[in-house]
Automatic annotation (TrEMBL):
InterPro entries: APOBEC/CMP_deaminase_Zn-bd (IPR016192), CMP_dCMP_dom (IPR002125), Cyt/Deoxycyt_deaminase (IPR050202), Cyt_deam_tetra (IPR006262), Cytidine_deaminase-like (IPR016193)
Binding positions for Zn(2+) per the UniProt entry: C50, C84, C87
EC class name: hydrolase
Entry's Gene Ontology cellular component terms: cytosol
Gene3D superfamilies reported for this sequence: Cytidine Deaminase, domain 2 (3.40.140.10)
Protein name: Cytidine deaminase
Native organism taxonomy: Eukaryota, Metazoa, Chordata, Craniata, Vertebrata
The EC number(s) this enzyme carries: 3.5.4.5
Length: 138
């Protein structure tokens, strides 16, 4: 699958001098445009950004809001790379039914969707739900 190959190419750009854990992502928009991303670490460790969020931010910053799929690549040969909790929530922002391909370097993959990765999620629609405003403030 081409998207998986593109995620593997994106991994080559990973900036991970601290963890040495390379990750790449390739995000397929509804019009078939592909946005790639890699993890970018920082000497201030907690500022590092995941490959998946980089790809989604690149797309969003160019006006894209709707996606068909994302493929994620790493160097782990024994295990499919799985997105972190933060990236799952970031994916959820753009819908819960699009596809996520967890891959291995040999190109094998596990196909899931956002809802499977983040069930009973909190998303944009929840902000428009009816609220109770008369909660006493002590
Ligand atoms: Zn992540």
């Amino acid at each position: 699958m081409n998207l998986i190959h593109q995620s593997q190419l994106a991994k080559e750009h990973a900036y991970c001098p601290y963890s040495k854990f390379r990750v790449g992502a390739a995000l397929l928009a509804q019009d078939d445009k592909v946005f790639t991303g890699c993890n970018v670490e920082n000497a201030c460790y907690n500022l590092g950004v995941c490959a998946e969020r980089n790809a989604m931010s690149k797309a969003a910053s160019e006006g894209y809001r709707s996606f068909k799929a994302i493929a994620i690549a790493s160097d782990m040969s024994d295990q499919f790379i799985s997105p972190c909790g933060g990236c799952r929530q970031f994916m959820r922002e753009f819908g819960s039914s699009w596809e996520v391909y967890l891959t291995k370097p040999d190109g094998s993959y596990l196909k899931m969707d956002v809802n499977e990765l983040l069930p009973v999620s909190f998303g944009p629609d929840d902000l428009s739900m009816e609220k109770v405003f008369n909660i006493p403030n002590k």
